[in-house]
Description:
Layout: E1 4-10, H1 19-32, E2 36-37, E3 49-50, E4 60-68, E5 70-72, H2 79-84, E6 91-98, E7 108-117, H3 122-133, E8 139-143, E9 151-155, E10 160-169, E11 172-180, H4 188-198, E12 204-215
Parallel strand pairs: 4-12
Antiparallel strand pairs: 1-4, 1-6, 2-5, 3-4, 7-11, 7-12, 8-9, 10-11
Amino acid sequence: MSEQRILFAKYGTAKYISHLDLMHTMERAFLRAGIAIRHTAGFHPHPYVSIPLPLPLGFSSQCEIMEFGLVSGSTMEALPAQMNRVLPAGIEILRCYEGGSPFRDLVFVRYEITLELDGDLAQQGEAAFRSLVDRPSFVVKKRSKKAKSGFTEVDIIPLIEGVERIEAQGDRLALTLLLKAQNPGLNPEVLLQGFRGEFPDLPIVYSACHRREILDEAKQLYR
Length: 223
C-alpha cells in the first residue's frame, strides 16, 4: 500500500505543542474530519503516522512533513481543507501528496533565527557569531540519554553546512543557517547554548527559531 504525506506549518501558540501531543492532535483530526487512515497490525493497532524530524518545542516551521496511509474519506486534493477545519490554530495543512523520497534522503534544514541581545549589542553579537562559525572546531556539551554522565561532547562546526546570513538589525541579530538534519543533526539550540557559553558578556534575552526548508543531499527541496 502506498503512503501519502502532508506538508504542514506550525506557528503561533501551536509552537508549544510537544511532538507527542502533536501526533495525538493529528490522529484526532483525522477522526474528526471523517478520514480513515491505515493502522498498524497486531493485537493493539494504532494509527500509522510518522514525522521524520520532530520539531523542537518552541520552534515554528513552514515545512513539516508527516507520512500516513490514506484509506478512505478524502482525496489528496480535498484533505487539506478537511483537516484545517478541525485542527487547532497554528497548525495548517499546506498540501497532500504521494510519498516521495525515503526519510534518509532528508539531509539539511534551513533555519531562520532571531536573537535579541541585552543592551545595544547587536553589532558586537554579529562579530562574535561570525568569529565562532569561522573556527575550524567548536566543541559543546549536549544532553545524551546514552552517556552515563547525561552529556556528550560534539564538534558542531562540521554540522553547519552553510552560514547564509548574519546581520545586525537594530537590537536584534538575524541569522540564516543551513544545518545537518540527522545522523547526526544539529539543533540550533545547541549552537545557541555554545554561543552563550563562549560569549557571556553578550546575553541573549530573546530567541526565535523558524524552520524554513528541508533539503536533500543535492540541496533541493525534499518531498
